[in-house]
Amino acid sequence: MTEPLVPTAPQQPPPAAGTDQSPHLQRGSLGVADIVFFVVAAAAPLTVMAGVAPLALLFGGVGAPVAYLAVGVLLVLFAVGFTAMTPYIRNTGAFYSYIARGLGRPAGLGAAFVAVFSYNSLQIGMFGAFGFFASTTANDLLGVDLPWPVYAFAGIAVVWFLGFRSINLGAKVLAALLIAETAILVLLAGAVLVKGGASGLSFDSFAPSNVFVSGMSGPLGLAVAAFIGFEATAIYREEARDPDRTVPRATYLAVGFLGLFYAFIAWIIVQAFGSDQAVAVAAKNPAEMFFTAMTQYVGGWATDIQRVLIVTSVLAALLAFHNAITRYVYALSVERVAPSGLGRVHSRHGSPWVAGIAQSVLAVVVVAVFALIGVDPYTEFFLWVNTPGVVGILVLQALAAFAVVAFFRRNSAEYSEGRVRTLVAPAAAGVLLTAATVLVCKRLDLFTGAGPTVNWSLVALTPAVFLAGMVLAARIRRTRPDVYAKLATTDVDAT
């Protein structure tokens, strides 16, 4: 059965006078640049480059920069179909809405469960990284020695406050933090280029003999994870100005910037040590590779700033993921799947404040549990909690690509967007994203450092959560058919 193309929103009673509830998020608040800041900040480019790019070099050799370009091209291919469907998905549910409208409501609700689970996994796990980096940086630069949970709890409070306040404030904070972390990497790049690198600039990284090697599966898996969260452009539809134009533009800009910037900075770090020595340096101490380069080419003062900016880079990602989670929960609440209280919007700030409190409380509980059992904040808490989120988002991307194909095949008489946008590009993206998901699952040891038992247990969480969502959809269909009929049909553009 064809689903309605311009659905109507479920009717809700108006908020009572004197309450802090509003029926809508803050309309027309975000432009293209604002949404790009949210998406790119979630990727945490400084953290990805300083913390992960050396591992990509270690496993894939000097050809690793090409992995970031390749994944960028793949996601641009995905964006072709994703943005073709954007004007017909007038909902803040992003993957949930796309998959429900393309593959059916049960798959859509399963996707919603996976999205909420995955973003929580990504965000809460990153509090371990935030606590670790903040603790070591404060100790190294200020001589302040406090345990990592103190910083993690402080980070939760800051993220909650910024999420509670106006989306405009969050956008401004993210813009400032993202510009700062990007600038420090550009500063390093400029110094390396001016000084000609370790032994003259070369393009060995792009030579076929260095690209098509057996070890490239490692960098490809790490590169795929580096783009996590770019589809969040669609989550901000209700808050975007002219969303039919803003969301597609922000999607292409975010993917294009990340792909080119990642590849460029990864190439720069190869030049900093030379094509013949870069892999050896990465093998000796990957965690210090970027800091060593910064000290050598710019100076110790820049290295100190870089250490601070890694902390703020993680904080920016935490805020971006927090906003994504609360808007998914808001979408489910509006459609009466989640408790209605979670969908309350603050009358002054226009934020889904109850969902924000719930998400922050969950983060406090998880951080407290891991702190009490004494796990390492980075190698265990961050990596183990974060990894299921990476797998879940990759699965959702593949499903969303196939959903685009199904949606336009079902509605081919009503819409003519061209076969390239509605069939060729999304189908190819779906196949390639499925292959990328399999690759990541096979090389999960690169993310967790754990054995097969732990790794496959983490992978199994995604299908289990997806199945739980489908089971709930079947139950809603039996017991609340009116709610089931309106899943993924909320029209946030309606006045």
Automatic annotation (TrEMBL):
Bilayer disposition of the protein: Multi-pass membrane protein
A GO BP entry: transmembrane transport
TM segment ranges: 35-60, 66-89, 109-134, 146-164, 173-194, 206-230, 250-270, 308-330, 351-375, 381-408, 420-441, 453-474
Ranges where the record places region Disordered: 1-24
Protein name stated in the entry: Amino acid transporter
Cited InterPro entries: AA-permease/SLC12A_dom (IPR004841), APC_superfamily (IPR050367)
Location relative to the cell: Membrane
Species of origin: Streptomyces dysideae
